[in-house]
């Protein structure tokens, strides 16, 4: 029995299904599940959950049976969704560079998301089309201290989003930031792929990356060094495609190539609490309320429309019909019976 193969098989290896027990494998495939995982993201900080291939690989029924020879090259892709819903919650995103790479669930929950969310992760073995499920229980907790009013967003040109999501890469970025700004209280709030901001997939040239936006926040004001990037001189340089001049040492390079022209500084400290709240327009429904369509729509007379769309074309058709009839019966040209008789 050949297992079904989809359009995206990545190798010509035969599938690892045992021919004798396809039904059993199928059944086991449906039931295969890993024990639940508990994670607790903090509101207002970046959260990353790695979907490790090795973790799911051993749980595929066909591989579990002959455990001694785990193929290291099983292509695995993932699908994640909020339990009972087709997609992920708004704050959470999923990414995987390819079936041989680690998948990531990442995002930055807000205070509105605080609570429990059940995410179901399904891993697909692209060789055998077996699946393994795992439930990840997200317990989103509020941030221990007050929010960070000083926020800066950096654009890192030489990294893809998957390359900054692992903890080590985040630490590296944070250390560079601490050294450069000589402050220790910056933390990463959000990470966004440039592709989510209208960026493009670069040409497949060595070293070209999509880029990633990293947003950091702090309770202490921006250092002069960061503010310098927004100075008039530097803005002018940037408009001429030149590097801005900053007095402190760029400790990010060479690992992270930060675009010093593309820095967003947000200072929320001067805003009062009410100003920070978004102001909803009148078109937004309250939670759990229903939309009541207006009942008193004005009466409208459709007679003239009717006459125009139905009767006018009919009238024209009738006229044409009469004209044609007149031409066919009264104005017929050709040989008459009488003429035929006389010619005989
Ligand atoms: C994080 O970034 C994403 C994508 O840009 C955005 O939709 C989301 O609102 C951000 N979250 C926070 C808490 O800033
Ligand atoms: C920042 O980068 C984005 C994407 O590359 C670009 O669209 C935007 O114009 C840049 N902003 C500045 C100020 O250079």
TrEMBL record:
Q: Which residues form the signal peptide?
A: none
Q: What is this protein called?
A: Sarcoglycan alpha
Per the record, the gene is: SGCA
Family that this chain belongs to: Belongs to the sarcoglycan alpha/epsilon family.
Give all residue intervals belonging to the Dystroglycan-type cadherin-like domain.
38-147
- Biological role stated in the UniProt entry: Component of the sarcoglycan complex, a subcomplex of the dystrophin-glycoprotein complex which forms a link between the F-actin cytoskeleton and the extracellular matrix.
Species for this entry: Chelonoidis abingdonii (Abingdon island giant tortoise)
Q: Does the keyword Membrane apply?
A: yes
- Give the keywords, sorted: Cell membrane, Cytoplasm, Cytoskeleton, Glycoprotein, Membrane, Transmembrane, Transmembrane helix
**Which spans are transmembrane here?**
306-329
